[in-house]
Amino acid sequence: MRSGMIVSVMTMLSRVMGLARDVVIAALFGAGSGADAFFVAFKIPNFLRRLFAEGAFNQAFVPVLSEYATQRSKEEVRELLDATAGSLAVVLLLITALAMFAAPWLVWAFAPGFSRDPEKLALTADMLRLTFPYLFLISLTAFSGSVLNTWNRFAVPAFTPVLLNLSLIGAALLLTPLLASPAMALAWGVLIAGAAQLVFQVPFLARLGLMPKPWPNFAHEGVRRIMKLMAPALFGVSVSQINLLLDTVLASLLAAGSVSWLYYSDRLVELPLGVFGVAIGTVILPALSRRHADQSSEHFAAMLDWAIRTVLLLGLPAALALTVLAEPLLITLFHYGAMTDHDISMSAMSLRAYSVGLVAFMLIKVLAPGFFARQDTKTPVKVGIVAMVANMLFNLLLIWPLAHAGLALATAMSAFLNAGLLGWLLYRDGVLVFQPGWRRYAVQLVGGCVLMGIGLSWLMPEWQQWLGWSLWQRVSWLLLLVVVGTAIYFAWLAALGMRLRHFRIIN
Predict the structure, then answer these.
(1) How many helices (H) and strands (E) does the chain have?
(2) Rounded to the nearest 10 degrees, what angle do helices 133-150 and 118-131 cross at?
(3) What's the pTM value of the predicted model, to 2 decimals?
(4) By C-alpha distance, which of 122, 241, 235 is closest to 184?
């Protein structure tokens, strides 16, 4: 619980700075061609980062490293770190060099609709050549963060993304007036951020005596195991990211601005997902790995149950609040400069659709570690493929009547399928054992959400009024709604006997 709160606080700081970054981008570039070009150029390496570094590599590396830390000598641990860092760097260098050479073709593959505008396509390709080296830098950063997390140093990796947001804000404000293509400033900001994030973690690794001396060794026993686990994991925990990327591909074929509308709404969903879902998933993976290594099945099952309860406790009201307050949130954060009333309306449609799947996105983050901690990466792959195929079918069914919002809703529906299958398989195999008290817990959560939704709907002014308000009026009203909604929800939980101590101890 303490580790989860540390990661949540640091992630909250990162997400708040991320919203500040998006406010700056929205004010300077709105939902125009420059913004669309940057979001695609950043999404490609960022997608690969989440799929490769934070997804497949992290889920394969942490269980193996935890086993070495528990059962092997410190010298063997250092040998594993040296071999893994060197092998990872070689692979990343080759991928980065190839991607920079093939930038125009990658843009065409990921955003085929841009081919209708040659200038937009060329700008995106130029941006991609600057943003793709970010994959190399941030993957090594993720490697460092995995080591620190395994040794229970959660704060540093959780704080590191703040540097990305600061770099993008600084580049947007300082470099935009100096460049012929103003949006290129954002691409430079991504490259600067990658270097800053990697350098930031080095002193903390050195302090633990775990600073690797990279040397490629693909024959190392630990590296071979990591590679074996990584292959199927590429489709495991990162299926939601693949679905989001498919949304971008299809959105590029829709009306201009569709990519940006999906981006701004996705950013708001990422706030609770990162603060709660990712934070809990981050801290339970090394803990579950240790419990598996110790053959402590009862504690393993209890921790999974705790993670699901915590996700529902925070995810359900967050999803409801995003749905009810969609326009006020978007207006308060983004309705400045180049961002139009129409952009707000369109972004709100996709925000509500994404919000439907927020709880499922969060459950995936805590259920997938139940497989990866046991070094089972094949089962999540099978589930991931089913979910991805379903997402494609949902996209085709919903894109025509609902346009970009249909893409967001399809992603949410496939996420529920993914989470449901993961949970059922863990339960079937006896790995997930629900602890006593779930019926009472469901009544507490559902009642709190219903009362919160009624209170917010009654208190909130019509969203069209927000368009004419000053920044101070918008922020004041939004803070009031957040405070009232939070108070109603937790007052109901307290009245029905829920206390913090019920979530503190996992034994």
Answers:
(1) 23, 0
(2) 40
(3) 0.71
(4) 122
